[in-house]
Specification:
The complex is a heterodimer of chains A (about 475) and B (about 475).
Chain A: H1 2-19, H2 25-45, E1 51-56, E2 61-65, H3 69-88, H4 94-113, H5 117-126, H6 128-137, H7 143-173, H8 183-186, H9 196-210, H10 220-226, H11 229-254, H12 256-261, H13 263-282, H14 287-307, H15 311-342, H16 358-372, H17 378-393, H18 395-420, H19 434-452, H20 455-473
Antiparallel strand pairs in A: 1-2
Chain B: H1 3-6, H2 8-26, H3 30-54, E1 59-61, E2 66-68, H4 70-89, H5 99-116, H6 120-138, H7 144-175, H8 180-187, H9 193-210, H10 218-225, H11 228-253, H12 261-280, H13 286-306, H14 310-338, H15 352-355, H16 357-371, H17 377-391, H18 395-418, H19 434-452, H20 455-464
Antiparallel strand pairs in B: 1-2
The chains are: A mainly alpha (about 475), B mainly alpha (about 475).
């Protein structure tokens, strides 16, 4: 039940922020976000059963929410990053801004805990709406177009997935199964070989657009560039994980034989994204865009881990999802502080800022190093596991992945050096304030904890993933 | 059950039409007539609701010409909702005399008759009773644009009525019967050219009223020129009436042979969804935008007929409700923003989010419902249609629905983004009026309610469209 309470607090909280006085909206939102974090700690201790009640009985739709090893830590990522995003926002953005942030939290929590396909789809689309309005009203000069692109591209994919979802449920009724959208029941489905590729493509399109995977990332540069830093952090930290989560939660159990059949093609897809993202990151002059393309590259890496179809690769992807969310979220927020203080994002316009803002520089370096995969920090663990999964059957891809890791160090350090090091510029900027330190430290601490104690996550994630992959083995997969 | 008892809602409306006419002689004040029509339509609503709750099996009267069943009663509920909305939205309009509420009730009566028509005569009666008051209402504000709209509507409407009548006559010639249910027996036999021509011509007549491509040309001009409250009645009520009779005509008369008309309507549905929503994209005038979006929605509704199964009939009936609620809400905002003007453009919405945040929020909800975003009724409706299309093994309809929805999305998001634009800061904030506020609140609560917990309405629709032969 606790997982439902998280959502109830987020939803009720979003409505509460609409009616509180304007100047205290941020404080109220932060307190409500804090309550959700506290409830989440309770959920970690007592995972519980979730909830499963009939919703639209005529169509076999159930309100079925729960948390397992796969979703538990993504829920954690959501609540932590939302709280960080609230604290990093400006109070003058007003009530409606915090309403949308908390509403986004509600949608994301629902997305990660839904176990009924219909319910999953509801939340899958619900999360699009807050981002649309955040991009419309609290963004840069081209925010409108970015918002439009975001919603239309994502909905295009999602609606095809909706056809896929209904198709799967309809096929399940033939010849005489019940109409159901329960993922655990649809797993046992046997589809006609002529239909399966189309249904597979419908789901794949939706998840690939949301992630985004190359070449479906058309909305990404605009949205990441235009959104305010906390929203970019949520976009790349939480939303991009939703797409990857879809591969793990829905596609892998439903379409394992197809994954085996298309494996090489899918790996090539992912590896192109990995390399493309890295090269694009190298040639950006805007520091936010470097991180945006770095994020595209990392999503390619996570997808690579899933498409290995080995336990260790999938485990690495699961781990990397959470780790990447925390790291890149922190990085975007630090970049947001920099932009706010200097008024620019152009790398060449900044230099030597570490002299006037040493603490900011330190945290920047910390998150940058984590993102590029320094051993001891979680990026390394995830990438190691993914590459271990690749080495078994696909050495070539493993070699490419390692080369990209070297490039990652190059593009991240290039930004850090350009902005922070070198001779001191004329400009002096303010350092991090005490009020900001006290939530950046826990975030960094969490990243460090994951880096030195990955087992805390992987030991929980293993059983349910093992279960998933094992189940699939019966459908002709090789594990 | 006697004919009087079964047709109580219709009799109530007729009664109140007569009372209002008498009342108009005694008092020239319009709010008397408006109140009378509100009371009349609310009591008819109550009577339909009451009949719905205990009449499960269909009752046929006048040799099958009048079929009162849960289906017709559900249609009654929908069109009365549209009529009530029209009266409330037009409450403050100064240019209308006392005849306005009477004409609205008359049009609603026509729509109710379309819901229960069981043969070609009642069909034609319903269409004419529905259309004639609307011709007058379109021109009722005495503006040049309104006159143009009314004339276009009248000429094209009369033309389509002629085609329909010709088609119905040919059908009678081919089958020797006027009643839908007896058609089915004849249709099963080898078909004659006479029958084919009859079906084609009658379908054209009905599809014209529904506003399906390629018979949609009149829709934007008529919507644009008509007064806002009347446009709402056309967008919601007429569509319900036309969809109801189309479904009854096809599923009662031609259930035995989905032969060629199933695919034909399917292609028309896809064409309509795509063309309607595509043309909605560049519109600057909000009424034209909703006209094209209405055409697109006619395409969505057509899916329910084209699937030729029980799910399709139910999905169509269900879809009418969220669509109608969204129309009510959208036109309520339109009439508030327009004030005394007849024309509203997308740019007139600029800055509404800042000036009237609640109004803007309500408008966003109904637009998201039009677009089919979850947690609004529009999504559940589209989901229902999608289910019907796939159960009928027609993925083409499903893909058409998806493409139409994506195109429509672009059209609906533009007004929504305009709400946040800073351009309109110098314009005065629109004032709330009681009638529009009531309509808007009902529409928004209904839209969200349908999206969050559609179960009762799904149940109701499943009871209403329960044609045993489609099982």
């Amino acid at each position: 039940m606790l997982v439902v309470w998280l959502m109830v607090v987020a939803l009720a909280g979003s409505l509460v922020t609409l009616v509180v006085p304007r100047q205290s909206a941020k404080t109220v939102a932060a307190i409500l976000g804090g309550i959700v974090v506290a409830l989440y700690i309770g959920l970690l201790v007592h995972p519980g059963q979730g909830v499963n009640v009939a919703w639209i009985p005529a169509w076999g739709i159930r309100f079925h929410l729960g948390s397992d090893g796969l979703s538990l830590f993504l829920i954690g990522l959501t609540v932590v990053l939302t709280e960080v995003a609230i604290l990093a926002s400006k109070p003058e953005w007003g009530r409606v801004y915090f309403f949308w942030i908390l509403f986004l939290e509600f949608g994301s929590l629902g997305l990660f805990s839904a176990l009924d396909l219909f319910l999953f789809y509801i939340f899958w689309e619900v999360v699009l709406i807050p981002i649309f309005f955040l991009l419309t009203s609290w963004s840069g000069p081209k925010g409108r177009q970015a918002a439009m692109k975001w919603l239309i591209m994502n909905l295009f994919g999602s609606l095809f997935m909706l056809i896929g979802i209904v198709a799967v449920a309809v096929i399940h009724t033939q010849p005489f199964g019940p109409l159901t959208f329960e993922i655990s029941q649809l797993v046992h489905l046997h589809m006609d070989a002529r239909v399966t590729p189309w249904v597979f493509a419908a789901f794949f399109l939706a998840f690939a657009i949301k992630a985004p995977l190359w070449p479906f990332h058309g909305w990404m540069p605009d949205a990441y560039r235009e959104a305010p830093a906390p929203v970019t952090a949520l976009l790349s930290g939480v939303m991009s994980k939703a797409g990857v989560y879809g591969f793990l939660r829905i596609m892998l159990p439903l379409f394992f034989p197809e994954f085996v059949r298309y494996e090489t093609g899918l790996l090539i897809f992912a590896v192109i994204g990995l390399v493309y993202g890295a090269f694009m990151a190298l040639r950006q002059t805007d520091m936010k865009m470097v991180t945006a393309y770095a994020s595209l590259s990392h999503i390619g890496m996570i997808a690579l881990g899933i498409f290995t179809l080995t336990r260790v690769g999938i485990l690495g992807a699961t781990f990397q999802m959470v780790a990447h969310g925390l790291m890149v979220g922190g990085l975007f927020i630090i970049l947001g502080f920099l932009e706010q203080r200097t008024g620019t994002r152009d790398i060449s316009a900044m230099r030597g800022l570490n002299a006037s803002a040493p603490r900011l520089a330190a945290y920047f370096l910390f998150f940058a190093l984590a993102t590029l995969g320094l051993p001891g920090l979680p990026g390394f663990v995830g990438e190691y596991l993914i590459i271990q999964g690749l080495v078994v059957h696909h050495v070539v891809f493993a070699v490419i992945a390692i080369i990209v890791l070297v490039m990652a160090a190059w593009y991240m350090l290039r930004v850090f050096q350009g902005v922070m090091q070198g001779p001191e510029g004329t400009k002096q900027i303010a350092d991090l304030k005490a009020g900001q330190i006290w939530w950046i430290v826990p975030l960094a601490g969490l990243v460090l904890l994951l880096g030195v104690w990955p087992n805390g996550l992987t030991s929980h994630a293993v059983p349910s993933l093992y279960h998933a992959v094992h189940l699939l083995a019966g459908k002709g997969g090789s594990v | 059950m006697s004919l009087f008892h079964a047709m109580l809602p219709e009799y109530i409306v007729v009664g109140f039409i007569l009372i209002s006419l008498l009342g108009n002689m005694l008092s020239r004040q319009r709010h008397v007539a408006s109140w009378l029509s509100l009371i009349g339509m609310l009591s008819a609503f109550g009577a339909s609701w009451n009949l719905w709750s205990y009449s499960l099996k269909p009752h046929m009267f006048v040799g099958g010409g009048v079929v009162v069943d849960n289906y017709s009663l559900f249609v009654n509920l929908l069109v009365l909702l549209a009529g009530l909305g029209t009266i409330l939205l037009g409450w403050r309009e100064k240019r209308w005399g006392t005849e306005f509420p009477v004409l609205v009730m008359l049009a609603v009566l026509g729509m109710m008759i379309l819901g229960l028509a069981g043969n070609t005569i009642t069909l034609f009666l319903g269409i004419e009773i529905l259309s004639l008051p609307l011709y007058i209402l379109a021109a009722s504000t005495h503006t040049a644009l309104g006159g143009e709209a009314a004339l276009k509507y009248l000429l094209l409407g009369a033309f389509s009525s002629g085609i329909l009548l010709f088609g119905l006559a040919l059908l009678y010639g081919a089958m020797g019967s006027l009643t839908f249910v007896t058609f089915a027996k004849t249709v099963a036999a080898p078909t004659s050219p006479l029958l084919w021509a009859g079906v084609v011509l009658s379908l054209v007549g009905i599809l014209f009223k529904l506003g399906v491509v390629p018979f949609h040309m009149w829709v934007p001009d008529v919507y644009e020129g008509s007064p806002t409250a009347v446009t709402q009645l056309m967008a919601f009520g007429t569509k319900v009436g036309a969809a109801a009779i189309l479904l009854r005509f096809m599923d009662f008369g031609f259930y035995a042979s989905p032969g060629w008309w199933g695919p034909a309507l399917g292609y028309l549905a896809v064409l309509t969804m795509i063309v309607g929503n595509l043309l909605a994209l560049p519109q600057k005038d909000l009424k034209r935008l909703f006209a094209y979006s209405g055409i697109g929605h006619a395409g969505f509704l057509l899916i329910g007929v084209a699937t030729h199964n029980l799910d399709g009939a139910r999905a169509l009936l269900f879809y009418l409700l969220p669509y109608g609620l969204a129309v009510l809400g959208a036109f309520a905002v339109l009439s508030l923003v327009a004030g005394d003007r007849d024309q509203v453009s997308v740019a007139d919405l600029s800055g509404l989010a800042k000036k009237r945040p609640v109004m803007a929020a309500f408008f966003i909800v109904v637009m998201l419902s039009f677009a089919g975003i979850p947690l609004t009724g529009g999504f559940v409706g589209k989901f229902f249609l999608l289910q019907a299309a796939l159960f009928a093994n027609q993925p083409g309809l499903a893909i058409g629905l998806v493409l139409g929805t994506v195109l429509g999305l672009g059209a609906y998001l533009r007004p929504v983004q305009a709400l946040f634009s800073a351009d309109g800061d110098d314009q005065v904030a629109p004032n709330w009026t009681v009638g529009s506020a009531v309509v808007l609140v009902v529409a928004v609560i209904g839209t969200i309610g349908l999206g969050v917990y559609p179960t009762p309405i799904v149940h109701m629709v499943n009871q209403s469209a329960n044609f045993f032969w489609l099982h």
